[in-house]
Design brief:
heterodimer, A: about 200 residues, alpha+beta, Chemotaxis protein chec, eight-stranded antiparallel beta sheet, 8 strands, B: about 425 residues, Beta-Lactamase, Alpha-Beta Plaits, five-stranded antiparallel beta sheet, 17 strands, about 40% helix
């Protein structure tokens, strides 16, 4: 199984991801009435046991987080993870439910809604660019401490993973979170094939 | 592609609820499952707003989710773990149910985009949710037990002397108390063989018995003497337990120790004559009573001897009690050194000593005691004062009352005294 990407493939993937992230920002503004920015996404192809370390490097290990995971399947399948701090999640709950003190249920639902919009838009747009289809599953959210977000042993069955990560920032609402699109072995190979096909279509 | 002829039948046969609704919440389809579980028939709700039937739904949030599905063209969802139900439905499960209301997964999928219609699908995930709750409860229980176990482990570590070894006796763990008691660093002990604690004072047979027991998957209990790193001798009550692996094969040993040094010292004091360091009369009584009571063949074959220092009162009166004590210690040492380890020698009281010679005939005993008498005769206190002793001997007759044995041996001693002292007489 060839899991290596050449420079052209990486450039194309970056371009598709940028388009997808742009679409996600527009969707959020339109649907949630929140004007946010997304940082330039980072693409890492690494060993699966590095995932926990990569996530831990972007969050405060002493804080509590809402971690929402949503699976998507198809030729390009994987998992989208959105990690948002307790304070940001409360602000999101306030904003979406229009209440001063949102309940835990309100916050969870708000986080799930935001994750779903992000995942659906980013992955749909990306797969649209790659001329393939995906199906989305119901997201699940957990309120957990930073150390429990990823357990190394949970991902150790995969040899390689792609981590596409960015930061979402709604300055007005004081909401920000980290988005990770994770995909593994077979899906990485599919992604590489799909990118090649698309390069062929675009550049002939 | 073949169009489905009877989509209504298909949707009615599904084991979950499906409704078609627009962004004004007007219901245009309501499947059989919903009719049954909500008790609202299809005919009653179609064409009407859901708000009339379920005013408690947060329609602002619901509208946003409908719009999201329509705009993005992918499904939107409600939180499946939420305690707020989209549409409240009772559960009919009678046995072992922790949920009174149905836990739902609600998916809003785009249906006809230009008519702003979506399909709302409701799945009953109560069983799954119950299992999740149960697992959560069990995890909390396990976590509490783990905390308790950790706390208890710490208590054990600090309060119980414990060693764990591999099958071949290599120390793999030791408790803090064990290290403190024997004055060793844990790191020093780990990896060493447990035999470093072996004492030359404990018979080799004891160690053999210990290893035989544990290698045969049996626990062993007994008293062992060990030295601390600074050389202090300690007695420990020890229990060694074999630990088996999942196949029932020996894998490790664990040993628990209890300090009995003080008890041992007290016990020693209880049976020892403080002046001569021989056993005292209490110990001799204990042994002879045990023999008489149990009448074991190996024990009952013995000769009883009473030795009495000649003219002891005169030594005391002439040279003082200190010299008298020295004389008693010298006789005691002479007796101990002239007899076998198996023979029991005790101070009977005053200047009298009692001896139990095992497995010898009367004639042999007489010869032995003659030699003892000669060795006593050679004693010189302060290089000048000579001592002699008289000896009475008799054989214990199996089954007889020891009063009779003592009467005979007393008579023999009396005769030795009356016939000139410094002699051995048999009765």
């Amino acid at each position: 199984m060839n899991l290596e990407f050449n420079e052209d493939q990486i450039d194309t993937l970056k371009e598709f991801i940028n388009i997808s992230m742009g679409a996600a920002t527009a969707s959020l503004a339109n649907l949630l009435d929140a004007f946010g920015t997304m940082h330039i996404p980072k693409i890492d192809i690494c060993n699966s046991n590095e995932l926990a370390q990569k996530i831990e490097s972007t969050i405060d290990l002493k804080s509590m987080y809402y971690a929402t995971k949503q699976l998507f399947t198809g030729r390009f399948g994987g998992e989208c993870m959105f990690i948002i701090s307790e304070d940001s999640a409360k602000n999101l709950g306030r904003h979406l439910y229009n209440v001063t003190t949102p309940s835990r249920d309100d916050i969870n639902d708000a986080v799930i809604e935001l994750t779903n919009i992000l995942t659906s838009t980013i992955v749909s747009r990306l797969t649209q660019e790659l001329n393939t289809q995906v199906q989305f599953f119901v997201p699940s959210s957990q309120f957990i401490d930073a150390n429990s977000i990823v357990h190394c042993e949970d991902v150790s069955d995969y040899s390689k993973i792609i981590i596409i990560s960015t930061i979402l920032d709604f300055k007005d609402q004081k909401i920000n979170g980290n988005i990770y699109i994770l995909t593994k072995d077979e899906a990485i190979e599919s992604l590489r094939v799909l990118i090649d096909k698309r390069i062929e279509e675009i550049y002939g | 592609m073949i169009a489905l002829k009877y989509p209504d039948i298909l949707l009615d046969s599904l084991e979950n609820g499906h409704m078609i609704i627009d962004d004004k919440f007007i219901v245009s389809y309501w499947n059989r499952w919903l009719s049954i579980n909500t008790q609202i028939p299809k005919g009653e709700i179609i064409g009407k707003s859901l708000k009339e039937f379920y005013p408690e739904i947060n329609y602002k949030v619901f509208y946003r989710k409908i719009r999201t599905a329509l705009v993005i063209g992918t499904p939107t969802f409600y939180d499946t773990n939420s305690s707020t139900k989209f549409i409240s439905m009772n559960r009919n499960k009678v046995t072992t149910s922790s949920l009174k209301l149905m836990q739902q997964q609600v998916t809003i999928s785009p249906y006809i985009l230009h008519e702003n219609k979506v399909m709302v699908s409701i799945y009953d995930i109560s069983e799954l949710f119950e299992a999740k709750l149960l697992i959560k409860k069990e995890i909390v229980k396990v976590s509490r037990l783990n905390d308790k176990l950790e706390a208890e482990k710490e208590i054990i570590d600090k309060n119980i002397m414990m060693v764990k070894t591999s099958f071949d006796g290599i120390i793999i763990d030791v408790s803090t108390l064990f290290c403190q008691f024997f004055e060793f660093e844990k790191d020093f002990l780990l990896g060493k063989n447990i035999s470093i604690f072996k004492s030359p004072d404990i018979p080799e047979a004891t160690y053999k018995e210990l290893w035989w027991s544990v290698k045969n998957k049996k626990s062993w209990s007994g008293e062992l003497k060990n030295k601390t790193s600074s050389g202090v001798e300690k007695w420990v009550q020890t229990r060694v337990t074999p630990i088996m692996d999942e196949n029932g094969e020996l894998s490790e040993f664990s040993a628990v120790y209890h300090d009995i040094t003080n008890e041992k010292l007290l016990a020693q004091l209880y049976i020892t004559d403080p002046l001569t360091k021989l056993y005292n009369r209490a110990r001799f009584d204990e042994v002879i009573n045990f023999i008489v009571k149990h009448q074991r063949k190996a024990d009952t074959d013995f000769i009883l001897v009473i030795a009495d220092v000649d003219y002891f009162k005169s030594i005391n009166d002439t040279y003082g009690h200190q010299v008298g004590d020295e004389a008693l210690v010298s006789v005691a040492n002479s007796l101990k050194n002239s007899l076998r380890e198996d023979d029991l020698v005790a101070r009977w009281g005053g200047e009298e000593f009692v001896i139990m010679l095992k497995n010898v005939t009367l004639d042999e005993a007489k010869m032995i005691m003659e030699k003892v008498r000669e060795s006593v005769q050679k004693i010189k206190i302060n290089d000048t004062i000579s001592i002699t002793a008289s000896f009475g001997l008799t054989k214990y007759i199996i089954g007889e009352d020891t009063k009779k044995t003592f009467k005979r041996v007393d008579d023999a001693l009396y005769e030795a005294k009356n016939s000139g002292r410094n002699r051995v007489v048999i009765k």
